């Protein structure tokens, strides 16, 4: 099983966000597979662009939900979103094609993002929203 495939442990227990996380993971998994299969850099770049656009959409929706329910750590969460988005854009800008070291660094960044952000920071807002009755 790929590290990017959805597992129940990734759930933040907010259906809308879980669905968005599933789509994001699906896109990231596809990109990771294309990188590993040494497909043309153009295909990988197209998927990277799609990931980055979807991340923006997801972050906006997530922040709106937190704003609507007055999540107390919203400002910090927004700051983290900005940092993650900037890193993703930087990787995209510096992507050189089938460089195994570059691909490995990008995959590592995505894994750390998954583990650190969804499994850590997002779970906190999930718990908060659940306490206000949002699932």
Commentary on this structure:
By secondary structure, this protein is mainly α. The chain has one domain (28-131): Four Helix Bundle (Hemerythrin (Met), subunit A), CATH 1.20.120.50. 76% of the residues lie in helices and 0% in strands. The chain contains four helices and no strands. The longest helix has 32 residues, at 100-131. It is elongated and about 45 Å long. The mean pLDDT is 88.
> In which range does the helix fraction lie?
over 70%
| Count of DSSP H/I helices | 4
Strand content: under 5%
User: What's the CATH topology label?
Assistant: Four Helix Bundle (Hemerythrin (Met), subunit A)
Mean pLDDT: 88
CATH-defined architecture: Up-down Bundle
Write out key terms for the chains shown:
76% helix, mainly alpha, elongated, 0% strand, 135 residues
Question: What is this structure, in a nutshell?
Answer:
With 135 residues, this protein is mainly alpha-helical. The chain is 76% helix and 0% strand.
Map the helices and strands.
Layout: H1 15-36, H2 41-68, H3 74-94, H4 100-131
Helix pairs in contact: 1-2, 1-4, 2-3
């Amino acid at each position: 099983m790929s590290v990017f495939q959805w597992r129940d442990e990734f759930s933040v227990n907010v259906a809308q966000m879980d669905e968005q996380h599933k789509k994001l993971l699906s896109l990231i998994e596809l990109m990771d597979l294309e990188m590993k299969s040494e497909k043309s850099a153009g295909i990988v770049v197209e998927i990277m662009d799609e990931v980055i656009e979807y991340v923006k959409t997801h972050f906006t929706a997530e922040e709106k939900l937190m704003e609507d329910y007055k999540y107390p750590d919203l400002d910090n969460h927004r700051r983290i979103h900005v940092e993650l988005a900037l890193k993703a854009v930087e990787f995209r800008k510096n992507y050189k094609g089938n460089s195994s070291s570059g691909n490995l660094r990008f995959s590592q960044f995505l894994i750390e993002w998954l583990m650190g952000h969804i499994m850590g920071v997002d779970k906190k807002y999930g718990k908060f929203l659940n306490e206000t009755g949002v699932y």
